[in-house]
Amino acid sequence: MMRPLRSCAAALACALALAATARAQAPAAAAAGYPDRPIRLIVPFPPGGGTDILARLLATGLAGQAHWTVVADNKAGAGGTIGIGEAVKAAPTGYDLVLGQKDNLVIGPWLYKNLSWNPTQDLVAVAHVAYTPVLIATSANSRFKTLADVLAAARAAPGTITYGSPGNGTSIHLAGDLFEKAAGIELSHIPYKGSNPALMDTLAGNVHLLLSSVPSAMGQIKAGKLRPLAVTSARRSTSLPEVPTVAESGFKDFDVSTWYGLFAPAGTPAQVIGILNTEVNKLLATADIRAAIQAQGAEPEAMSAAQLGALLRTDYARWKGIVQASGAKID
C-alpha cells in the first residue's frame, strides 16, 4: 500500500530538520574536543628565517602553555605564496594553520597574477602575532650619520644615493618607494635576492643604504658594523629604542610595518577560531614569549580574530595601488 502524500511530506520535513540540526551542532562538537591531535603550522619560508623562528616560538609556547602539539611545516617558494596556497587547500578543521604576513597575503597577490586563491575569501583570520618595522641603515664607515644627512645628499644629487633591498616587490622595497614619495626625493633602488646579500654590499660600501627587517640587521648593528638611521613604524622599535622613526624625522604619520598573523582555511568553525585566538593572545601576554619575540626585532601585538581580518582586508585594498604605482616586478 502506498503511504499517503501527507505522511511522506511530514517524514521529509522531519529528516531535513534533523539534518539542519546536525549541521548546526557539528562545529560545536568539533570544538568541544579541540585539539585532540597535532596541529600543522605551515611556514611559507625556509627554516631559519624570521617567519620560521616566530612560528617555532609559537609552537613551543603553545606546547608549554596549553599542552598542544604544534608541528611547523616549511613550504617555501614564490615569495611565500606557495605556503599560503597549501593552507587554502587544507580541510577547514583547525588542524592546518599558516603563519602569513603582509608580503605573501597582501602584496604577493598583486605581483603574482596567476594565483588561484584570494586571501580575503579563501582564508579566515585567527590571531595577530607581531609586527616589525623596516630599518633604514648604513655602514658604520658611511658619511651619513642621520637620516637628515641622507635627505640632504639626495636633494643635492637626485638619483645618486643607492639603497639595497631583499628584492623587487617586497614590502621592504615598497617601504623605500613610499619613503621616496613622502620625502620628495629620488633614490636608486638596487634589488638583491635576499636580505643578506644587500647587507653585505652595504657593509662593503657598494650601496649607500640598506633597507631591511630589524632581525636581519641586528647582528651587524650589535657588532658595530652597521649604523641604524631610522625605523618606519609609528613607534620606536623595542629592540632599538634609541633609533628614531621616520615620522619623528619630519614625516608625520609615516607608518610602514610588516605584520605576522595566523590564518586558517575558510570555513573553519568559529568556535575553533575562538579557542585558537584565546590561547595565542594568552601566550602573547606572557613575559617570556614577549621577550623572545622582541629579541628577534619584532613587536608582539595581540588582536581579536575580527581585528586581524579587518587589517587584512584594509591592507589588501590599500596595497594594490602602492604596488601598481611602484612599478614593482618579480625578478
Automatic annotation (TrEMBL):
UniProt signal peptide: 1-24
Pfam families in UniProt: TctC (PF03401)
InterPro entries: BUG, Bug_dom1
Keyword annotations from UniProtKB, A to Z: Signal
Keyword Protein biosynthesis: no
The UniProt record lists the keyword Ion transport: no
CDD domains on file: PBP2_Bug27
Similarity field: Belongs to the UPF0065 (bug) family.
Name of protein: Uncharacterized protein UPF0065
Organism from which the protein derives: Verminephrobacter eiseniae (strain EF01-2)
